[in-house]
Write a structure and sequence with these properties.
alpha+beta, Neutral Protease, domain 2, Serine Threonine Protein Phosphatase 5, Tetratricopeptide repeat, seven-stranded mixed sheet, 20% strand, binds ligand BES, binds zinc ion
């Protein structure tokens, strides 16, 4: 009896120690690919865990504190981190002050921080401060929030901005766990891409833990006068008080989305899925920060019509956060898979027609993007070469919509059952790790194509510009009817209002986006008088309507003032750039510059930098 117990115990112990050995060995022997957007040399010395201890000061708009890392050193005499616009005050290695060196500044990559370490160094600690040039942080005045009484702060890490608020090895190949202690003014609450508080506490000190390893671009922080409202045991929303109920209502299908996603590609690995709705200057529709998606308030339409955004960010919990693109050249592995997964979730919840409308809107985005990229065909390949460029250059609808179309075409070729089994095994095999395009192709060949004796032009889709001839043809009866209604209005100047009675916002968007180039100002006026597009409460409809108003020199119903107001409050990059682009196309740059003069100060750096470039500033 005793002997048996002893045997069981020892075998458990051996098992545990074997696993430990395996893990630590993996850490030491993992080979990282050459990476052009980080100075880190992780094959020499790599970070494995971050302990962040910071103070958020709204008066000076500075974050300051200490970032302490556990590291694994493969006998190097230094470790290199990425920094940009940070003030480094002191560095220690295992508690003793050591020398460090900040290299020359590169406009997009920032400065390498080289720290002296010993063969057996286990921890390094960096005392630092952010500066006014930080690109990740947007400090908002009370005026820029819904409540207008307290300031707000949020971070945006993707693609390479985390290094502007934390000194870190900022490569998607390097995963770390983290703990954080964040001190904020006691009337505000802090939340992170981690285990989060659900209530404010009087001390203003919040503790966080992210126990799953994540890449640096997924570390995120938001600080503001926010509250939490649960949707289910594991889903819920954060927002400013006056928005909380509306947001809760809008996203009330969130638990169903998680269930649908799990049914498709396996268990949700992050325990909690919450969304925080930020003030309108947030530069993206959404950002998939693990456990806590950051979202724009422009999707709160009152009718759940824009919630595919939540499905999208949720899908990143698999494609992106669980299986991460190894380099920014493989960005389509994050976004193309996510759009595919997003549309599958939407289909599961709301049916095929809704899914196909989304797919067709994406198809039109792709065609527009291809048209605009005629001079740079290499950038229309799925696998990019962004060496020497800012990864932001590759973040356009090619990765999203061509990536989607590739996967949809593949699905139609192999059948849904095989496709789903394949994707599930792909996520499973690469969980909490990174993959690149070449490894994906090998995996696809071995586990889906060769196995089933299927030939497919994968290489053409991935390494050639444009869209291959075998692209899936997506059809939507609803959209065909919209096109007919539009066509007949253009020809007869009579609008069939009855036909539009039950249109969804997607159908309205499709209607407005497809005005012929020579639509007349009178026709614009007639449509606006009938449907009041200028005052639509759906941000997507107003955005495409404003675009048409700008392009077609329509000035009725006070639309110019509305456009200016929109551009002065909304910082969502896609919306903002669409409208400034329309001004440029219509040779109305003077008007654009006039608006931008006041609007720029409300934008996050991500949006401001893109618009600066667009307007040649
Ligand atoms: N991860 C992206 C946002 C992003 C991309 C940030 C590149 C920084 C660099 C996010 O998941 C996303 O794709 N957002 C879209 C929403 C969407 C439904 C396609 C957006 O912001 O519009
Ligand atoms: Zn995305």
């Amino acid at each position: 009896m005793k002997k048996a117990l002893f045997l069981v115990l020892t075998s458990i112990l051996t098992l545990i120690s074997c696993q430990e050995n395996k893990e630590s060995k993996q850490e030491n022997t993992k080979t990282y690919l050459e990476e052009s957007h980080s100075y880190a040399q992780p094959n020499d010395a790599v970070i494995t865990h971050l302990n962040l201890d910071i103070d958020v000061d709204f008066d000076t708009q500075v974050i300051s504190g200490v970032a302490t890392y556990d590291i694994v050193n493969n006998s190097s005499s230094f470790i290199i981190l990425d920094t940009k616009f940070l003030e480094i005050e002191e560095v220690t290695a295992d508690g003793k002050e050591v020398g460090f060196y900040l290299g020359t500044m590169d406009e997009s990559l920032g400065q390498p921080l080289t720290i002296e370490i010993k063969e057996d160094t286990k921890k390094i600690a960096i005392t630092y401060k952010t500066t006014a040039q930080t690109e990740a942080l947007q400090w908002l005045t009370a005026q820029q929030t819904a409540e207008k009484t307290n300031p707000f702060l949020f971070t945006q890490g993707q693609a390479i901005l985390t290094r502007t608020w934390i000194p870190i090895q900022d490569s998607p190949q390097i995963r770390i766990t983290y703990d954080a202690t964040v001190k904020v003014p006691s009337n505000l609450m802090a939340v992170m891409s981690a285990e989060n508080p659900k209530e404010k506490n009087a001390s203003g000190v919040y503790n966080f833990k992210m126990k799953q390893p994540i890449p640096a671009y997924l570390i995120a922080l938001a600080v503001g006068d926010i509250e939490y409202k649960a949707i289910s045991d594991r889903t819920g929303v954060y927002a400013e008080k006056s928005m909380l109920d509306k947001v809760h209502e809008e996203f009330s299908d969130m638990e169903k989305m998680v269930v649908a996603a799990e049914d498709l590609y396996g268990e949700y690995d992050w325990e909690q899925f919450d969304v925080i709705v930020l003030p309108p200057s947030f530069p993206f529709g959404g950002m998939e920060n693990p456990r806590l998606t950051f979202a724009t308030p422009t999707v709160i339409a009152g009718d759940k019509s824009l919630t595919s955004l939540v499905a999208h960010e949720l899908a990143h919990s698999w494609s992106g956060n669980l299986v991460t693109n190894a380099t920014w050249n493989d960005f389509w592995l994050n976004e193309g898979f996510t759009v595919y997964f997003e549309i599958r979730i939407m289909e599961a919840l709301y049916g095929k027609e809704r899914a196909n409308m989304l797919a067709l809107i994406g198809r039109q985005d792709l065609d527009d993007e291809l048209e605009g990229m005629k001079e740079t065909p290499n950038d229309t390949k799925l696998k990019l070469d962004l060496k020497g460029r800012n990864p932001d250059d590759g973040m356009n609808s090619i990765a999203y919509d061509k990536g989607y179309l590739f996967l949809r075409t593949l699905e139609e070729k192999v059948g849904r059952e095989k496709m789903d089994a394949f994707l599930k095994s792909y996520f499973n095999k690469n969980a909490f790790s990174t993959t690149n395009t070449e490894d994906f192709i090998t995996y696809l060949n071995e586990n889906l194509l060769e196995k089933n004796n299927i030939t497919f032009n994968t290489e053409e889709w991935i390494y050639e510009p444009g869209v291959p001839d075998n692209a899936a043809i997506i059809k939507s009866n609803a959209f065909t009817n919209v096109e007919k209604t539009l066509q007949s209005f253009i020809e007869t100047n009579k609008i069939d209002v009855a036909a539009t009675q039950n249109w969804t916002p997607q159908e309205w968007v499709h209607f407005v986006r497809n005005f012929p180039e020579d639509i007349s100002v009178d026709q614009m006026q007639q449509l606006d008088d009938t449907f009041d597009f200028t005052n639509s409460t759906n941000s997507y409809i107003t955005m495409v309507w404003y675009e048409q108003a700008i392009l077609n020199n329509y000035h009725g119903n006070n639309v110019d003032a509305k456009i200016a107001e929109f551009l002065n409050t909304v910082g969502r990059r896609w919306y903002v750039t669409t409208l400034f682009n329309a001004f440029a196309k219509a040779n109305r740059t003077d008007e654009a510059l006039k608006i931008y003069k006041t609007a720029r100060g409300n934008y996050h750096s991500v949006t401001a930098n893109t618009v600066d470039e667009m307007l040649g500033l």
